Amino acid sequence: GVFMYSHLQQKVRNAEALAQKYKQQQEALSAQLQVVYEHRSRLERSLQKERGEHKKTKEDFLVYKLEAQEALNKEKQDSMNRYGALSSQHKILKNQHEDVKKQLLDLQLQHNSLKLEHRKTLETHSQKYAQLQQEKDSEVTNLQDTVFKLREESKLLRKAHQEVHSQLLNAQ
């Protein structure tokens, strides 16, 4: 009975030692599990924070993308408006250029016509001048001849007058 009692006590001690060992292992595992839970809890909080930041970043990006798209559309519209205005202005200036070019051609033709007319008028005037000069020279020559003849006639008339006067004096 004692042997049995002693053997059972030995078994109880072994069992208590084993229980103590398991209890320590359980406490160690509990501590490790607690660390793992805390670590998991921190990771979940960090993940939630990251998700929140990701969501905020995504929202900010969408807002930025929308604003950028609106700005791009506005810039595109402004560019199209400027292009339209410049295109219209280009057409107007092109038409004005064509009009000025046409006016220049008309003025050049008019200038050439006036130049030709001036040349003809100058030639006509030169011819008239030469003709008038010739007529003047001819008239001057005729007048000089007439003056010469009149002088000769005057001399003859003086002589005749002198003779008549002499004859009258002689008759008296």
TrEMBL record:
Residues 5-60, 90-142 form a coiled coil. This is GOLI4 protein. The lineage of its organism: Eukaryota, Metazoa, Chordata, Craniata, Vertebrata. GO terms for cellular component: Golgi membrane. InterPro entries: GOLIM4 (IPR042336). Keywords: Coiled coil. It comes from the Eukaryota.
